[in-house]
Amino acid sequence: QVQVVESGGGLVQAGGSLRLSCAASGSIFSIPSMGWYHQAPGKQRELVAVATTGGIAHYADSVKGRFTISRDNANNTVYLQMNSLRAEDTGVYYCNADVQTSAQPVQYRHWGQGTQVTVSS
């Protein structure tokens, strides 16, 4: 019943910027953790950035200083501002939301379908 949808991907030149958006909807009580994963061609999916409800953010070493994650808790939305993009940033970006659907202390992980980012060199 929970749906996660990403948007904002596209084609950009190296050194350029993109802003990805992810909105969660459905039976949501809270989202303690919401983040972004990257899957480059031929590689496994890996964490890019994650943000908690309290505003604590964590980043992969490869994107520190270039990407910024932010959350709009009122709208169950998370953003990823991507600056100084490199060719190796190319791939599919997936949004993840660890959703609590009731007052019960149980969380379920939900994934979006992904949005393609292509950085030309």
Record keyword descriptors for this entry.
121 residues; mainly beta; 7-stranded mixed β-sheet; 4-stranded antiparallel β-sheet; elongated
Produce the secondary structure layout.
Elements: E1 3-7, E2 10-13, E3 18-25, E4 30-39, E5 46-52, E6 57-59, E7 67-72, E8 77-82, E9 91-100, E10 108-111, E11 115-120
Parallel strand pairs: 2-11
Antiparallel strand pairs: 1-3, 3-8, 4-5, 4-9, 5-6, 7-8, 9-10, 9-11
Account of the 3D structure:
Strand 7 (67-72) and strand 8 (77-82) form a beta hairpin. The radius of gyration is 14 Å and the shape is elongated. The strands form two sheets. Strands 2, 4, 5, 6, 9, 10 and 11 form a seven-stranded mixed beta sheet that branches. Strands 1-3-8-7 form a four-stranded antiparallel beta sheet, with no helix packed on it. Helices cover 0% and strands 57% of the residues. The chain is built from no helices and eleven strands. By secondary structure, it is mainly β. The model has no long low-confidence stretch (mean pLDDT 96).
